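Reopening this ticket.

The earlier resolution said the output was attached, but the attachment link was broken on my side. Pasting everything inline this time so it's all in one place.
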Amino acid sequence: MTVHTGYIEVKTKGENDILDITEKVAEMIDLSGIGDGIACVFVSGSTGAITTLEYEPGLLKDLPDALEQMMPKDKVYEHHLRWQDGNGHSHVRAAILGPSVSIPIISGKLALGTWQQIVFIELDARGRERELIVQIVGE
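Inline output:
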């Protein structure tokens, strides 16, 4: 069993910036030499999320719209009342979406669907520099 850890550096524009990181994860798998195993992609931070979706213009608009309907920015959040940082909604959205995904690796390739990409979603109210952790385990 081999473990390979890598990092993806991203700079975001701010809230609702959705970045396709699939190719960067695939490159790390190639470099790891692992043929069969699992890749875990994780964001360290409480206002970002990792998920999968079809990375196309319609969904890049639909997902932020759905998040706004479920967890509106203009709602009163206790986090904001306590810290006055205007990102209570960001924390709630990140908690719902989650900080990571795990994807099987089969014959050296991510086992993603045809229209499925791995994305990082910036949920904080401001742009950030993020370090995403990719840990690949297998043989």
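Reporter confirms the inline version is readable. The longest strand covers residues 2-11. The mean pLDDT is 97.
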